[in-house]
């Protein structure tokens, strides 16, 4: 069989070469001509898979996206044309949660004792919620698709917007009873209290970016972190200048998260073909050789900031985007290519569970680090 795959899917050859011939193409430029003889199509979120792409590809019987979101897939078309499809829910949830931690550490915002709001409590937001609750945090969640039995900390949107920190993790929907498109506009931004930190790691158009730009052009001390934009890859550079941290849609780009997505779609294609999987992630990726870190005695918050920055330097991602904006100037084509290249050439970032942290023999510190996802070994306090 012929498998057409986004060239940026990691380990795509190692996983799928035993299934069929793998042909790799740039995901954002994938065309109908690329897929007309394919049997399976493997994509990421940058490829819109619909009738336009597949109308002349009658042999495509499987579409897999190595991502959580599916707003780029026309699943109604798939159903009408008997095409099996699969996504990778939760594959990069840890990566996004750790992005949130890294952003807050870089901004020197200790979330302990703060009112933490989460908009969208699915795979990513739900994991963030569970991690924060394990740390003893007060969480205020908005997700109209959940019930109180599923999440006892559900509130209306206005209540969540009154929190000290607000992290957004919603998929993009434009239909249904609760569409998320432009969920946050001028009226909602005006409700933010001074000093709020607003993060969007879900989908760019969930925030009206023009309204956000106008809001940030007014005197206020709201700090905004954006990993997703409206639109991409040619984002509003004026808005980029105003946010405290701006990154090129890489919150979920940990090496572990991307590999999880590849493995999940490999397993889904095997199920579709009624074939037993022959490859596992553990076989392909050895553990880190240099995985030990030291958590300093003394100020725990300062030590945590240092620890997280040593594993994930989010400031470097922000700096790369700002350097791109300077290089590209007003040239949208140059910026768009640069945005995609930052994603394509993204350095390896490993998740916290890959590291063993040597820390003081302090039950609070140990519990805190474990709830953040680190493995720990204690040492005697000096």
Labels describing this entry:
single chain, 382 residues, alpha/beta, 6-stranded parallel beta sheet, 5-stranded parallel beta sheet, 14 strands, 15% strand, globular, NAD binding
Describe this protein's structure.
The protein has 382 residues and is an alpha/beta fold. Helices cover 36% and strands 15% of the residues. It is built from 16 helices and 14 strands. The chain has helices at residues 12-16, 32-35, 51-54, 75-80, 93-106, 123-134, 157-160, 186-189, 209-216, 237-242, 255-272, 281-284, 300-311, 314-328, 332-344, 363-372; strands spanning 2-6, 21-25, 40-43, 62-65, 84-86, 115-119, 138-142, 165-168, 197-200, 223-226, 245-246, 292-294, 356-360, 375-379. It has a six-stranded parallel β-sheet. A five-stranded parallel β-sheet has the order 2-1-3-4-5. The longest helix has 18 residues, at 255-272. The protein is globular. 42% of the residues are buried. Residues 31-276 form the D-isomer specific 2-hydroxyacid dehydrogenase catalytic domain. Keywords: Cytoplasm, NAD, Oxidoreductase, Pyridoxine biosynthesis. It comes from Cellvibrio polysaccharolyticus. It is found in: Cytoplasm. Belongs to the D-isomer specific 2-hydroxyacid dehydrogenase family. PdxB subfamily.
Summarize the entry for a quick read.
With 382 residues, the protein is an alpha/beta fold. Helices cover 36% and strands 15% of the residues. Strand 8 (165-168), helix 8 and strand 9 (197-200) form a beta-alpha-beta unit.
> What characteristic shape results from the CA principal axes?
globular
- Series of secondary-structure elements, N-terminal to C-terminal: EHEHEHEHEHEHEHEHEHEHEHHEHHHEHE
Residue-averaged pLDDT:
96
- Trace the largest sheet across and list its strands: 7-6-8-9-10-11
Catalytic activity: 4-phospho-D-erythronate + NAD(+) = (R)-3-hydroxy-2-oxo-4-phosphooxybutanoate + NADH + H(+)
EC number: 1.1.1.290
Enzyme class: oxidoreductase
GO molecular function: 4-phosphoerythronate dehydrogenase activity; NAD binding; protein dimerization activity
